[in-house]
Amino acid sequence: MTESLRIGVFICHCGTNIGGVVDVPVVAEYASTLKNVVHAECNLYTCSSDGLECIKSAIQEYELNRVVVASCTPRTHEPLFRATCEGAGLNSYLFEFVNIRDQCSWVHMHEPELATEKAKDLVRMGVAKAALLEPLEELSSDVIPSAVVIGAGISGMTAALSIAKNGFYVHLIEKEREMGGLLSRLYKLYPTEELVDDFLEQRIKTVGGHERVELHLSTSIKNITGYVGQFKVILDENGAEKSIDCGVIIVATGAKELEPEGLYEYDGKRVITQLQLEEKLRRDALNVDGIKNVVMIQCAGARGEVVRYCSKICCMNAIKNAKLIKEANPDINVFIAHNELQAYGEEYELYYRAAKKAGVRFLRFPREKRPKVRTSDGKLIVDVFHDRMQMNIPLDADLVVLSVPLVQNPDAESLSKLLKVPLGQDRFFFEAHVKLRPVDFATDGIFLCGTAQGPKDIEESISQGYAAASRATIPLAKGYVRSAAITSSVDEAKCVGCGICESVCPYGAIAVVETEEGRRARVTGVKCKGCGTCGSSCIKKAIEMHHFTDEQLIAQERAAFVIEAVVSG
Amino acid sequence: MKEEEVNLIGFLCNWCSYAGADLAGVSRFQYPSNIRIIRVMCSGRVDPELILDTFLHGADGVFIGGCHFGDCHYLEGNFYAEKKIEMAKRLLKVAGVDSERLRLEWVSASEGERFAAVIRAFTEEIKEMGQIKYDKERMEAVLMAAADYRLRILATKERELLEVGNKYGEVFTQHEMDRLLDDLVQEEYEANRILLKLKKPMAVKEIASELNLKPNVVLQRILGLKRHELIEIHEIRDNTPVYIARELSEGGLTE
Questions:
Q1: DSSP class of residue B171?
Q2: Bigger pLDDT: B163 or A412?
Q3: Fewest Cβ atoms closer than 10 Å to its Cβ: which of A251, B140, B192, B249?
Q4: Which chain A residue shows the shortest CA-CA distance from B36?
Q5: Could you tell me if B76 lies within 8 Å of chain A, comparing CB atoms?
Q6: pLDDT higher than threshold 50 for residue B255
Q7: What is the CA radius of gyration of chain B?
Q8: With 50 as the cut, is the pLDDT of residue B253 above it?
Q9: DSSP states of A357-369 as a string?
Q10: pLDDT at B217
Q11: Any chain A CB within 8 A of the CB of B55?
Q12: B18 touches chain A (CB under 8 A)
């Protein structure tokens, strides 16, 4: 390195969060004695505008070419400090973060002296790494201004329409012959009780008629390659292969009803599911059948029976169907046997009360004593163990309706492999973060919405459709994406083209190609997420994982012990 | 550091364990202050050489934290981490170091309490073992062995060989794999011990008696080292070739 190292260290009190335990001035004093450190100071809050100003002016005044901040955690504050360095003309990757709050002062609150010693060590380690940091450039690549939405259920249609209205072209892909998804099998919606057909017909017309929506019905996905901004999706459309280029992908493949084979004497005729009931209601088949007693069983197959989760929509759905039956014909007795009824929120609570008023009877059973369905003299009887009365109540039933949970579609597995995005424990698509990034996948440029991510009702599916569309529109509107500079690179002089790196890369970011020198691995920077597994696997150690290089990590680790080597003078 | 204190280094993956450690802080779950944490993007980034280098330079215990299986931010990095850490443990054993000093745990971002508990328990165990004691040359030899391309391939491919099989569809049993790896590790270790001894010129018999190895084993390793051009004949003394190491640089982390 030609220029001499000039490191500035900023130690944050974080009010009393760090300063109350760690002796911050002592750590700053110590930092100033370290090799290559030309400036060290403490700040009350380094992340405040005053603190950031201190960093900026110190970069100018002391001609700093490396900045170390010892404060909270890089997981929340690294972007801020990086931007500050950038603002002062320093490449943002010449910044190193030292965590002395979450991983020091907060976890050693009763040992201030040891915490101070640890803070010194951590700062020394950070400085050692900082000395080896290299400036890195973020990569930029173009975004094809169109989207692919997989699944034309209510959330997929919503997302597609929203993106199209924002001015971008959308390919809407549906495996069935028609749009609508699960919704098209419903009769009326809670809590408004509007007819699904009216609601859906209008949606389908708008989506199908939009000039920027291209429909692909009876279509399945054969392959997906590429990365954010540059995806290539190969379709099988009615047997014909078709290739589509797009910038972003939204997964809206929905869910299906659990088939309750072998549960509660299910036969699809007298013991049916809620969806089958909706179809009957649609045809007004209850009156024709002369049915007098309807018993609904909640959590059938859910919450530990077949699947472990709560399907979220079945309580309200059962209440709605029960209410509709009762209101259409008050002579029909309708019972809902449940374990824990959830009618959350203002509207749903009122709706539940209205159902009660209409004469729907609710019986609560303990979860470990679920109802049993049996036949006596050709008549169906449901034995419900009443939780309050602690006794069994046999209910005559002409029709038993099982509220079964939504489960993942079987083809989700292959789609998750094609997209290289994960499924969670319950096989639903797994978002990047349940609270902070609820409609993103961890992979850039791929988003999700609707019941593909887990059971949810129409309102939530629509909201998520909008959310996913809005997230997906960001790269489309910008026209380019910048990817983090923490990527790997190959030293082609060392590489022997064995391909072990290619085999471990989960993103297809590194691949062996033919070069004039022979077979060599090459990295597609935009695809690389920076895990570094290729580097630790490379048999020739030809791969450098930028920002976490062997040299940097070794320097950091050794500095924990080799105290003299990094102290100046 | 106080006389009796132990030094621990933790390599934590950015997405799960590092976040779990942060959560332990946010929730104020206390644990001993011996550990110094280094952030990496993925536990799969940590290779045996880095771990052994950490031990060689003063760690009494090394902790690796990754995401639970199925939770890895990079899908499968932690599966590779597991095999790499197993390889590091094999190498530690050969160097005569208790492999329990190296610990791999899966800690999620939501397991702050568990993170603190795991670190408490691990620190206690290391304290009971006391400060690390090892023969420097043996440790250096395993560190060099860790850089061997065959060991690096197997550490990465072990999972595939156990689950999918090799090019010919032969699936290895864990027992076969263990035997193969143990043999290879031993072989590489011996070769590197010899290489380190050959900083000064020595004959096969001398090496054999110093390292307490059979002369025929030493000769075998010597031939291997010579084939890889790592050593050369220094002189012929009393009709016996005396060998010396060529430059010790290629690939090693040591210098």
A1: P
A2: A412
A3: B249
A4: A122
A5: yes
A6: no
A7: 21
A8: no
A9: HTT-EEEE--TTS
A10: 95
A11: no
A12: yes
CA angle A487, A491, A495 (to 5 degrees): 115
Residue A225 bridge partners (DSSP): A232
CA A167 to chain centre: 26
Q: Does A136 touch chain B (CB under 8 A)?
A: no
Structural element, H or E, at residue B202: strand B202-203
How far is the C-alpha of A145 from the C-alpha of A166, rounded, in Å?
11
Distance in Å, alpha carbon of B241 to nearest chain A alpha carbon: 31
Determine the pLDDT at residue B4: 63
Residue A567 has pLDDT above 90, yes or no: no
What is the pLDDT, as a whole number, of residue A549? 95
The CA distance from A150 to A143, in Å, is: 19
3-state secondary structure of B228: coil
Query: Which residue from A108, A63, A71 is spatially nearest to A89, judged by alpha carbons?
Result: A63
User: Which residues 424-483 of chain A have a CB within 8 Å of chain B?
Assistant: 425, 442
The answer, yes or no, to whether ipTM is higher than 0.90 is yes
Which ranges of A404-453 does DSSP label H, i.e. alpha helix? 412-419
- Say whether pLDDT at B174 is over 60: yes
Question: Above 70 in pLDDT, residue A170?
Answer: yes
CB-based contact A534:B152 (threshold 8 Å): no
Nearest-CA residue of chain A relative to B147? A539
Q: A353-360: list long-range contacts, CB under 8 Å, 24+ apart.
A: A354/A323, A355/A319, A355/A320, A355/A322, A355/A323, A355/A326, A358/A323, A358/A326, A358/A327, A358/A330, A359/A326, A359/A330, A359/A334, A360/A319, A360/A322, A360/A323, A360/A326, A360/A334, A360/A335, A360/A336
Q: Select from B106, B110, B96 the least CA-distant residue to B186.
A: B96
Q: Which two tokens stand for residue A390?
A: 């602690």
Determine what percent of chain B is predicted with pLDDT higher than 90: 82
Non-local CB neighbours of A11 within 8 Å, separated by 6+ positions: A18, A24, A27, A28, A31, A40, A41, A42, A43, A46, A70, A71, A100, A119, A123
